[in-house]
UniProtKB/TrEMBL annotation:
Similarity field: Belongs to the bacterial solute-binding protein SsuA/TauA family.
The keyword Glycosyltransferase is annotated on this UniProt entry: no
Segment forming the signal sequence: 1-30
High-level lineage: Bacteria, Bacillati, Actinomycetota, Actinomycetes, Kitasatosporales
NCBIfam families found in the cross-reference section: SsuA_fam
Protein name: Putative aliphatic sulfonates-binding protein
Organism name: Actinacidiphila paucisporea
Keywords: Signal, Transport
Amino acid sequence: MSRTTFRLFGAVGVLALTAGLAACGSSSKAAPPAGPSGSAASHPEWSKYTFTIGDNGGDGSQELAKTTGAFDNAGYKVKFARFTFGPPLVQAAASGDIDLGSVGDVPPITGAAKEFGFKIVAVTRSLTPTQPAENIIVPKGSTIRTLVDLKGKKLAVPQGSSAHGLALNALKSVGLTTKDVQLTFLDPAAGATAFATGKVDAWAIWNPQSAIAVKQGARILAKGLPPIDQTSNYYVASEKSLNDPARRAALTDLLKRLSGEFAWGVKHPDEYAAALSKEEGIPLADAKSILTTVETRVTPVEPADITAEQKLSDAFLEAGQITKKVDVATVTDSLLPAGFDSSKLG
């Protein structure tokens, strides 16, 4: 596996990437959205805070923050921590090792089932909801043509991830269960190797990994779209930050600024692709080709989101993938004001 591919699939595990974000003086910088009280100057206590943002990769958030200067005048410091996928990120939020991070639809469920201390605070929605954020894919030349053909086959899945939920629901949609296939729980890096070397027959994985694999010849067996999958991700935050009024106000400001950098990126696709290329270590052409798969908007948590998460949680319990019923409403604490939509920023 090349160094580029190795890095793309997150084999480095958890890695602190940025100790702080310095202004770079670029004229192309976005104007950071105002905080809850309009200015960091209104909150001198923020100077004491350093917030860690958990990063799953694939959205260019760290490089976009540098490009846009989103946190230059925030009043608090920001650093990023890189994770291979969602479950360890949720655990880090629960332990207070990170303050905020974006994950798929399943990690909050599996984390809540283990009674981790975190809350769902916002939703990241695809700007192209008819385009899947993840897929079940098979290698070029595979004889597997339908989901039913997965019976008895090896399906690689990052355990406890959104792709785990896609696999579960996709199998159920054709009358199969987890007993009918050989679920092979592998993190994204190990899954990439197993898929490339033929050690598994299929792989449930998100973008950009899925999109790049398809570009290289893999075939989509099942798209991660309703009714078998959600197209949204969820921001989770540590209860430590949420329960302290001053830190909560700063965290709300942070989330708005983070939302603003993505809004800027959508309106500046060339710069966004360059940021994604640099952060993920992939060719610029690949970054441009998959850009629409990562373009999103951020909104508050809505009742429909809680309903969708509850349905998925109940499905996991029914399938024996978790052992404790989760009440999703009790692990939800929306940070953003009603009507907030990052696509309207800038």
